[in-house]
TrEMBL record:
Family: Belongs to the phosphatase 2A regulatory subunit B family.
GO molecular function per UniProt: protein phosphatase regulator activity
InterPro entries per UniProt: PP2A_PR55, PP2A_PR55_CS, WD40/YVTN_repeat-like_dom_sf, WD40_repeat_dom_sf, WD40_rpt
Subunit details: PP2A consists of a common heterodimeric core enzyme, composed of a 36 kDa catalytic subunit (subunit C) and a 65 kDa constant regulatory subunit (PR65 or subunit A), that associates with a variety of regulatory subunits.
Organism: Paramormyrops kingsleyae
Entry keywords, A to Z: Repeat, WD repeat
PROSITE patterns in the record: PR55_1
Entry protein name: Serine/threonine-protein phosphatase 2A 55 kDa regulatory subunit B
Amino acid sequence: MKCFSRYLPYIFRPPSTILSSSCHTEADIISTVEFNSTGELLATGDKGGRVVVFQREQESKSQPHRRGEYNVYSTFQSHEPEFDYLKSLEIEEKINKIRWLPQQNAAYFLLSTNDKTVKLWKISERDKRPEGYNLKDEDGRMRDPATITTLRVPILRPMDLMVEATPRRIFSNGHTYHVNSISVNSDYETYMSTDDLRINLWNLEITNRSFNIVDIKPANMEELTEVITAAEFHPNQCNTFVYSSSKGSIRLCDMRAAALCDNHSKFFEEPEDPNNRSFFSEIISSISDVKFSHSGRYLMTRDYLTVRVWDVNMECKPLETYQVHDYLRGKLCSLYENDCIFDKFECVWNGSDSVIMTGSYNNFFRMFDRNTKRDVTLEASRENSKPRAILKPRKVCVGGKRRKDEISVDSLDFSKKILHTAWHPSENIIAVAATNNLYIFQDKVN
């Protein structure tokens, strides 16, 4: 983002509210959002196991205002509910993560995962159909070979464009615990899948075998003190990856050092201030998301109240710390009672690593400019998200006299939460998932 502050306070405006329904069910709740490497496609997964792929509208001189709009390109059922009879355990169909693979040909490929199974999907277009088979009729029925007296050459006829999604690989039986993240390696041949206690390395061509590269399961489960919460590969070093834990620590590992990366290369953790120690300290320090910057120089982590930026060459303390919703510090008790304190917020970089975005409650999402140190709170809602309207910044009032444009911390709606967001890899276009609605905002167009 060349000039983030220039767009304050109206950084993004919505071309349209993309995905919404007035009466939604639990299955409609969006559980992941991801742009592909060019930003031309945007995929969402939901709790019902569906994947919806949106394609960006081509720019036209007659309708320049349509720049940035996304329309439905393909919808398919990625996962179905299953039942593990050996463990008497229901396996949800909810899509936990989607990751795109770089485009190699006319087709697109993406990985999607629920709690147990990762699938590789191919999304391709078809606008021609073959006709004139020798061994079967046009309706597909096999012909009697005795009736075939001439040899025909099949030809391709034009047809209406059809987008097909086909599962190319199914990677199953690799995890005992729930998969919380997947990450494609920069060699584009391998990827890793992560559950609470283990990280597995897979080859994209091999479905029946994976290599365990991290295992933190203790011999006695009563000695378990932390779990893995997220993991990601370095953007351009195929041997390096990072994973975060529920104790607020980040470990950087090098696969060249050993086959099993139980011994990390670098360890990032900020010691807690004893004066701020409370019953909730351990819960709110758990890292819910970790992301490498596009350059690979920085790490970004999100815990319940803050976003931190780390320099990979400096383990002693974070480079930057941003308070997302510090006004909730006095409400941790009620947030614990309604289970909101266990919400897992994600965080994303913009294309140039200069701006950070993450979600909050009341359908608020926050942006932090690393250069100017300015920040803004915006709201994703139908009421203030009319097409081509300008988003106004929101402010939360903590006690005292409330101004006209402020909202009291006591009137925040904790059932409306922005957990999943995505940023276009090269432009100022963002996707924000608010329960069952997907909002797409773009910067101000003159």
